[in-house]
Fold:
Amino acid sequence: MSELWKYEHAAFEKGFDLICGVDEAGRGPLAGPVCAAAVILPRDLDIEGLNDSKKLSDKRRRALYDMIVEQAIAYGIAMVDEKTIDEINILQATFLAMRRAVEQLSVRPSLALVDGNREPDFGEIPVQTIIKGDSLSANIAAASILAKVTRDRFMEEQDAIYPQYGFAIHKGYGTQAHYAALREYGPCPIHRMTFLKKLYGA
Structure:
C-alpha cells in the first residue's frame, strides 16, 4: 500500500467507501480567482509521481492532470472570482469553491478529506481535515493538481488580455515584478482590491 493511501485506508476500515479529496489553489495571489477541486480516485490507484502540486514541475503537474481526469471515478473543479473574494473574504470564497467542486461530483462521496485545518460545510457529507494533506493523501494530492493546473491555465489566458502584469509567469502572486507592474499601471479588473490595501487603501 502506498503511504499516500493511509488516511483513505483508515477511513475504509471505518466503513467509508467513496472518499473524495478536496484542495484549493490561489488563496494567496493578488489577482484572479481561487480554484478548488474534488477528486474520487479508484481505491489504491497508483499514479506514479502523484504528490502535492507545489512539489512538482509545471510539466509534471500537467501530465498528472490528464492521468487523474482519465482515471478518477469522479472529479469537480470550481473557481470563485476576485469580486466575490473581495465581497465575502478569501476563506469564505475558498469554502464556496470547495462546495461547488464537491457538488459537481457525479457520485456522492461518503467522506471528504480536506487539506488544511479549516472545515468547510458540505452538508451531510462528513469532513476530515488533514494538515499538509496534499502530500499525505492520494485524493487530496490529486485535487491539488487539478486545482493548480486549472488556475494556472486561467491566469495564462488572462495574461493575453492584460500582458503588462506578467500573469503567465507569477500567476498573480505578489512577486517583485508584479508589484512593480501594479505601481506602474495600477490594478486591472481581475485584481483583488482587498489584497491591495497597502497600495491603494481600498
Remarks:
- Residues 138-161 form the longest helix (24 residues).
- The chain is about 45% helix and 15% strand.
- Residues 3-200 form a domain with the Nucleotidyltransferase; domain 5 fold (CATH 3.30.420.10).
